Amino acid sequence: MSEPTLCSVVVPTYNRSDLLRHTLDSLVRQTLPASRFEVIVVDDGSRDDTAAVAASYEDRLALRYFFHEDDGYRVARARNTGIEHARGEICVLVDSGVLLHSGALRAHLDSHAAHEGPVAVCGYVYCFNEDNEDGAEIQRAIDFADPDGFMAGLTEEGRWLDIREEFYEKYTDDFADLPAPWLVWWTCNVSARTEQLRSTGMFDDAYRSWGAEDIDMSYRLHRDGARFLLNREAAAVHVPHDKSYHANMRSVAGNYRYFASKYGTPIASLVVDHHFFAINDLIRERDLPACADFLAAADREDTAAAGDPPGPVLVFSPHPDDDVIACGGTIARRAAQGARVRVVFSTDGSQSHEAVLGIDRDPTPEELTAVREKEAGAAARVLGLGPDDVTFLGFRDTALAESLPEFRARVLEVLREQQRDGGVAEVYLPHEVRELNADHRLTGETVLDCLAELGLTPRVRKFVVWDEQTEAEFAFVNRNEPGRAPAPGERLVTVPVRDQLPRKRAALAEHRTQVDLYSPAQNRPVVPEVFAARVRGRETEQFWTDGG
Questions:
Q1: Dihedral of the CA atoms 47, 50, 51, 54 (nearest 10)?
Q2: Taking every annotated instance into account, which residue ranges of this chain make up the domain Glycosyltransferase 2-like (predicted)?
Q3: Whole-angstrom Cα distance, residue 446 to residue 466?
């Protein structure tokens, strides 16, 4: 009978066959018998000899190789492929170019065996740098034939130590009880239970550029009860390669913003503008609530504000699908609470293909109008609404500015009808200033003016779909500059929608003209996949309110 596989080593790689060879050489040298671990190399679309290099180790390692076509930066997807196919109880995640100490795998396993509950292990990494500083010198100094001896020498000399040593010295190696220990679980050399990685959703493939996909994963491991620890014996050398600190910081900035909006907590928001090593002190100085406590309080606040039973809700959506993108989880939440939710679509959505992709036939704008109306109705039903809960005003997509008097009259008509039909307790609409897209901004501005004209004072929640990042990803700009500033005292409120995410994702999928390759002429969806992935990933929805 063969011995069970104790751990699976997952190595994503892309056009780095030389670096991969170093990593595989170090795995051949492990004191843990090769029969007790497997190696899963996941190639993210390399054009070099990566496949041949991986195959050359199959006689010495239990190695499996998986290949993905090159769809851009997809390291999260690559790691997920490894985790999905892992046979070991523990997954050790390393990057290609990480030279492991011969005892590293055994040390990772020892850390897990020493704890009854789940742990997330940070291995120690020598020679990691942020801007490839000292790269040439490090490359010359590494003893590839004896990495163990090289690491012992670095320890003795106190040279090229783990860049996180500053963090470890400040908080000690026993940092698990910090409010945010997950900030230093970097996937160049870490491990976690395979089942916990799977049960918490694995890596989020919405991260399509360098950075932050690992702390997103570690954040969820922390929320799921994993205890974080450092094992210095699980050591490795990070072999230098070309990189730019400034380019990486530009890349990761959008990822940090996504992380903050995805989880919607004060602690998560700190990653946007603060160094990781300072965040735990900031949490304590500001007395920020734990993420679970904050979300529980936000849930209670939102439920209380909605009322028991909740009052009628109006959602003003500039286009068919914006309702799902901005507040699909909240719509499903309100419907489940018993509220009557009505969605009003400003425009017909007819120009999505022509404006974004330059396609004006198959489908024509007229065909799109009819199809998108059906899609919006189907999405509304997924969220828990009935056929009478959607209203299409039918103004021309991308050109709402040309019909503002008529649009205003229709909005007043909708609001007066709503008054006669039980009133309105809550209104969701695009932010009248922060939204960049003209149809969005003008929808919000007009609805707010109409509410004021009628003397209606429902609770108003404002969303933002189109910001500069959205414009860049869609490669479409249609602005209308605001004539006002955001209301003083605005605050951002968070609504937890994790329980509603399956419905929200299913509702988004109903908009096939937008998220699929609907036209034969398309080579990309109207809604960029990276944008859609973030919509599917966010566990909270956030809205601006005018104080209170």
A1: -170
A2: 8-139
A3: 17
